[in-house]
C-alpha cells in the first residue's frame, strides 16, 4: 500500500510574477519541500507542493499567508497517494542527453546500437526522489561534472533525490561516492537506482541532514538545492569539501546568483553554466 504524501495545493493571483514564484519556492523549501508539480500547463497559476512530512507541510501552510506579497495565495492541505502523483506526473518523460551522459527512464532506454563507446547511460526510475535530468539545474550540474576529472575522486552529493548526480559521478570514475538526503523516500529511490546502474558498491546513500553530516570531506561536492538553502548552508558545504576541492552548486536563478556567490566568498568561482535563467557554479575551496 502506498504511503500518502503530504501536500499543499497553491493557487496564485493573476498579478503573481516570476520573482514572486521564486520567493515562494524558497519559502516552501525552508519548510521541507520535496517537489513541486504544475498541475496543468493550461493553469500555470496552480501548483501542488509535496513535503517530507505533514509537519513540514503545515509549517509551510502557516508561513505562506504571513509572508509579504503572499496573502492572496489560496492554499489547501491534502494527502496524495505516492504512486498517484510521482508516477503519474513523470510517466511520459523521455530520455535526456547532457554531453556524454544519457539520463533515461526504463520506458525510454536507447537501443544499445544507438549508444557509442563515449556515451554513459544512467537509467533512472522516477519516484518521489526527483531528478530525471529534465530540470535545468540537474542538466547544469551534469554539464559541470563532466568538466572535472573525476577518476578516483571522492564525491559527496547533497540532496541527492533520485541519485542521478551521484550515479553519474560514479559512472565518470569517482570513488567513493556518498549521496545524502533528508527524505527517506528519496534515499530509497536513490538506492534502487544505484543498484539498477550497477554502482551500489560505489555509491553509499544515506538519510542525513547536511547540518549534522559528519563525513570525510570530498574532492568534489555537488549540491543541487535552492538559492536559499545554498546561502544558509554555505559553511556546511565548504566543510564537506577538501581544501583545493570543488563545489558544484545549482538550483538558483540569475536573480539569486550574486547572493549565492557572496555566501561562498572569498572562494573563487572557476566555472559557470546557465540555462533558461537557471545557474550553476563550480567553486574552488581555496
Order of helices and strands: EHEEHEHEEEHEHEHEEHHEHEE
Provide a count of the helices. Answer: 9
Low-pLDDT segments: none
Q: Tally the beta strands.
A: 14
Dominant shape: globular
Strand composition percent: 25-35%
How is the biggest beta sheet arranged?
A: 7 strands, mixed
Supply the helix-strand structural class: alpha/beta
Range of helix content: 25-40%
**Span between termini:** 49 Å
What is Rg?
Answer: 18 Å
Mean pLDDT figure: 87
* Biggest β-sheet: strands ordered side by side in the sheet: 10-9-8-11-12-14-13
Please outline what is shown here.
The protein is an alpha/beta fold and about 290 residues long. The protein has helices at about 20-30, 55-65, 80-90, 135-145, 165-170, 185-195, 225-230, 235-240, 255-265; strands spanning about 5-10, 35-40, 45-50, 75-80, 95-100, 100-105, 120-125, 155-160, 175-180, 205, 220-225, 240-255, 270-275, 280-285.
Amino acid at each position: 500500500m502506498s504511503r500518502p504524501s503530504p501536500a499543499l495545493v497553491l493557487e496564485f493571483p493573476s498579478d503573481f510574477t516570476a520573482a514572486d514564484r521564486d520567493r515562494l519556492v524558497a519559502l516552501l523549501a525552508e519548510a521541507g519541500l520535496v517537489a513541486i508539480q504544475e498541475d496543468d500547463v493550461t493553469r500555470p497559476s496552480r501548483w501542488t507542493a509535496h513535503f517530507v512530512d505533514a509537519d513540514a507541510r503545515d509549517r509551510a501552510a502557516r508561513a505562506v499567508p504571513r509572508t509579504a506579497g503572499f496573502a492572496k495565495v489560496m492554499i489547501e492541505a491534502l494527502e496524495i497517494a505516492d504512486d498517484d502523483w510521482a508516477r503519474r506526473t513523470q510517466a511520459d518523460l523521455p530520455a535526456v542527453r547532457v554531453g556524454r551522459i544519457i539520463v533515461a527512464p526504463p520506458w525510454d532506454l536507447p537501443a544499445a546500437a544507438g549508444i557509442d563507446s563515449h556515451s554513459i547511460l544512467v537509467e533512472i526510475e522516477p519516484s518521489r526522489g526527483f531528478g530525471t535530468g529534465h530540470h535545468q539545474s540537474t542538466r547544469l550540474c551534469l554539464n559541470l561534472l563532466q568538466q572535472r576529472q573525476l577518476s578516483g575522486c571522492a564525491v559527496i552529493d547533497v540532496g541527492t533525490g533520485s541519485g542521478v548526480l551521484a550515479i553519474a559521478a560514479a559512472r565518470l570514475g569517482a570513488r567513493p561516492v556518498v549521496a545524502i538526503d533528508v527524505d527517506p523516500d528519496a534515499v530509497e529511490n536513490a538506492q534502487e537506482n544505484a543498484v539498477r546502474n550497477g554502482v551500489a558498491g560505489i555509491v553509499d546513500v544515506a538519510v542525513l541532514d547536511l547540518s549534522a553530516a559528519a563525513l570525510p570531506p570530498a574532492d568534489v561536492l555537488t549540491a543541487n538545492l535552492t538559492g536559499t538553502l545554498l546561502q544558509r548552508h554555505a559553511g556546511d558545504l565548504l566543510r564537506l569539501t577538501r581544501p583545493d576541492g570543488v563545489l558544484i552548486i545549482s538550483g538558483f536563478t540569475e536573480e539569486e546568483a550574486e547572493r549565492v556567490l557572496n555566501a561562498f566568498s572569498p572562494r573563487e568561482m572557476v566555472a559557470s553554466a546557465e540555462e533558461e535563467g537557471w545557474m550553476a557554479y563550480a567553486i574552488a575551496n581555496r
